Amino acid sequence: MAFRGKVCRRFEFRPLGPSGAARNGEPRGAAVALGQELHQNYIAGLITRTSRGGFTSLRGEDPAMLKDIVESLYAEQPQTLLYHYTSLAGLQGIVTSRKQWASELRYMNDGQELREFVQHLDREIHKRLDAASGQADVLTQFRAFALGRVATGPMLFAISFTEQGNLLSQWRGYCPHGRGVSLGFTAERIIATAKAGGFSVGRCIYDAEHQSELAARVIDAALTTAEALGPDAAAEPLRSYYRAFLSIENDIIKISALVKNESFREEAEWRLVSEAFPRDAQAHVEYREGMSTLIPYIELPHLDRNPLFDHVYLGPTPSGHLSMEALSKYLAKTQAAHELENSMTPLRIT
Fold first, then answer.
1. Number of domains in the chain
2. So what's the pLDDT on residue 131?
3. Which residues neighbour 23 within 8 Å (Cβ) at sequence distance 6 or greater?
4. CA 212-83-45 angle, 5° bins
5. What residues are paired with 84 via a beta bridge?
6. Residue 107 pLDDT more than 60?
7. Which of 249, 258, 226 is nearest to 239 (CA)?
8. I need a labelling partner for 77 at 20 to 30 A (CA). Which of 22, 197, 240, 262 fits?
9. 137, exposed or middle or buried, with CB in 10 Å at 0-12, 13-18, 19+?
10. pTM of whole model > 0.90?
């Protein structure tokens, strides 16, 4: 193994794949900037196309178009390394089991998971009601449906990744003090792992205008579906259109999973997102201890091929030299990574 400035160690197990080329040929930040530029170009075209062809109208949205929107949101694929922040124990668990845990979205660190998009739906519904819409009953029911189902609807499981492998806010928010690592996965591995496990890869959406656009489309689809199916005569009057809304709920929740508040933009997050699970599903669902509750999760196996990680950052730690030495030996023994680097992030560990 080689030392680079005494903070980086490289493990030569095999030649770097295509996703490592950008890192070797130019600064890591340049690769991230390129990815962000490609994403902006992608988003600019998203509102005028889907995987099936063009759409231009925000009114009379065909419910089938929701599936097209979901497919479009999850069609963009990562082009650079993506990092997952975890603890040293988490690293060992991934290396030993060759699996990662996908947590139910409502139990993630951000208390607004799924609710962020519901707030956009709520604002758009209020605008339409204020405009004396002729579909006030359907809109009012859909608002109540969305607000209620954000807490009681289907389960959705996800694993978070970021383009930023060495970010102070990430070390603070997602790693135990002094015992954090950031695991860099190649885009190829992430895409293959998601495909094998039935997950979708999606980039989080931080732009409020784009989020509002999506909310408008979802409401149009809800109105069209309600009109097509009509009220359910057997249901309570205030829930007469819930049958229609349930038919498009899985698509709505998949869209919601990628909508994040703009304050998190620096995280540049990507997600591996499962299909929706019924609320009472128990098969394959496990539970782990969280800060104040048990957290439901499902396991997502990685392809059994070394190295698991293309690049690893050791987070801020009071035992810098010892921790770096032990981690480098562990990664060499397990052949789990190409490269280990000290984050050198100034963070007081108390």
1. 1
2. 84
3. 31, 80, 81, 311
4. 35
5. 183
6. yes
7. 226
8. 262
9. middle
10. no
